[in-house]
Amino acid sequence: MKIVATALTALVLGVAAAHAAEPAQIKTMQNEKVYTDSHGMTLYTYDKDAAGKSNCDADCATKWLPLKADASAKAEGEWTLVKRADGSTMWAHSGHPLYTYHGDKKAGDMTGNGMGGTWHVAKALNA
Q1: Is 91 exposed, middle or buried (0-12, 13-18, 19+ CB in 10 A)?
Q2: Strand partners, 13
Q3: Residue 1 lies in a domain
Q4: Is residue 8 part of a domain?
Q5: How far apart are CA 22 and CA 38, in angstroms?
């Protein structure tokens, strides 16, 4: 009986691991549901990105930090992966690459929203 219970536990854990958590969370900030990273930092989209392509490189990427994906990350549903010019991989939601802003100092800050008229908080519209 102990062998069956151990095998069943291993099976359940294996299935749970196959369905990894989404790369972002949804938080309500300033009466809006927005995406944040695992530390509660606001995520942003960039109007100059193309669907599935990041156009924020070099100096831009030092101010707007890409939401990096682990090498083992797998796209699922609306969450996709974008290969960057430097060879790294970042997360995108519905084709929009996601970034944090270096000017946000603590969880809940949204100081990058509207910056340059091209940066916007990533809103969780269907949540």
Answers
A1: buried
A2: none
A3: no
A4: no
A5: 10
Range of the domain at 78: 23-121
Is residue 4 assigned to a domain? Answer: no
Convert the pLDDT of each residue in 22-65 to its tens digit. 899 999 988 899 999 999 999 999 999 998 999 999 999 999 99
Please name the residues in contact with 20: beta carbons below 8 A apart, sequence gap of 6 or more: 73, 74, 76
Number of domains in the chain: 1
CA 97 remoteness from chain centre = 8
Q: Pull the structure tokens for residue 58.
A: 């070099």
Contact 82, 53 (CB under 8 A): yes
Q: Is 17 inside any structural domain?
A: no
Angle at 64 between CA 35 and CA 34, to 5 degrees: 10
Q: Which amino acid is at 82?
A: V
